[in-house]
């Protein structure tokens, strides 16, 4: 497993050097089922997936982005939320990270409360404060079907973001139709592109990112010997 990771990362680095396009590793973390996989599909400009399974290990998706005339590549690491599917891979997730998206589900207070655990995991893995952090409250399309007192309020989330020096967004990975969402429920504006642009703009200002972890494909690494085995290196 580890040698596969190292080999693929080296191949990716070569590809990145040849393309001359700066590549940034963006880690996506948060509890299981908050919507990290769906969100990374959307962030990489793909559709909301019709069917998703729990991530085993990590999946990769990429997004090429034009930021003020410079093409940069966001390499989105969609990590497993379930501890049993993360196992010994965690240190790999945190190596050479350029930005982190902390995702919670606005309808699941427990996923918001867990954010401190995810922040702590970053600290344990020596992620410096200079690495930009983004807080994303997902599933805003469910705001109307959940009792207000069951929702994580924007105020709470903003305070958390401020305390931890994060840029805050709420979005729905599912709500893909911008005009329909804007007209029907104004606060459900499709913010996915806003998130991509904010991450891109913030990273573009970063000088000389390390180019170590650059798989030039979409694929996945998974912890083996699990019942729910997907194919290794499955394309997205
Ligand atoms: N209503 C709604 N459902 C969503 C949204 N995003 C994801 N989901 C659903 O939430 C469930 C979990 O989504 P995933 O993307 O697999 O969650 P995850 O965080 O990647 O989960 P792990 O892989 O276990 O870490 C799926 O049934 C999705 O269809 C959203 O914005 N709105």
From TrEMBL:
<dbReference type="GO" id="GO:0005525">
    <property type="term" value="F:GTP binding"/>
</dbReference>
<dbReference type="InterPro" id="IPR001806">
    <property type="entry name" value="Small_GTPase"/>
</dbReference>
<keyword id="KW-0547">Nucleotide-binding</keyword>
<dbReference type="InterPro" id="IPR027417">
    <property type="entry name" value="P-loop_NTPase"/>
</dbReference>
<comment type="similarity">
    <text>Belongs to the small GTPase superfamily. Rab family.</text>
</comment>
<protein>
    <submittedName>
        <fullName>RAB33B, member RAS onco family</fullName>
    </submittedName>
</protein>
<dbReference type="InterPro" id="IPR005225">
    <property type="entry name" value="Small_GTP-bd"/>
</dbReference>
<keyword id="KW-0342">GTP-binding</keyword>
<dbReference type="Pfam" id="PF00071">
    <property type="entry name" value="Ras"/>
</dbReference>
<dbReference type="GO" id="GO:0003924">
    <property type="term" value="F:GTPase activity"/>
</dbReference>
């Amino acid at each position: 497993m580890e040698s596969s990771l190292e080999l693929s990362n080296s191949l990716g680095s070569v590809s990145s050097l040849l393309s001359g396009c700066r590549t940034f590793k963006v880690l996506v973390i948060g509890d299981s089922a908050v919507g990290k996989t769906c969100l990374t599909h959307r962030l990489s400009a793909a559709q909301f997936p019709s069917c998703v399974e729990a991530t085993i290990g990590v999946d990769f998706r990429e997004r090429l982005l034009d930021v003020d005339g410079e093409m940069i590549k966001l390499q989105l690491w969609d990590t497993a939320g379930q501890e049993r599917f993360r196992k010994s891979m965690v240190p790999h997730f945190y190596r050479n990270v350029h930005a982190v998206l902390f995702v919670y589900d606005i309808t699941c207070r427990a996923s918001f409360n867990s954010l401190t655990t995810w922040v702590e995991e970053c600290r344990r893995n020596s992620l410096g404060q200079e690495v930009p952090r983004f807080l994303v409250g997902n599933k805003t399309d469910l705001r109307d079907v959940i009792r207000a007192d069951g929702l994580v309020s924007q105020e709470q989330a903003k305070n958390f973001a401020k305390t931890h020096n994060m840029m805050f967004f709420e979005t729905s990975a599912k709500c893909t139709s911008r005009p329909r969402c804007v007209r029907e429920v104004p606060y459900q504006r499709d913010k996915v592109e806003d998130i991509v642009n904010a991450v891109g703009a913030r990273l573009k200002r970063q000088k000389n990112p390390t180019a170590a972890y650059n798989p030039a494909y979409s694929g996945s690494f998974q912890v083996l010997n699990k019942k729910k085995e997907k194919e290794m290196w499955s394309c997205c």
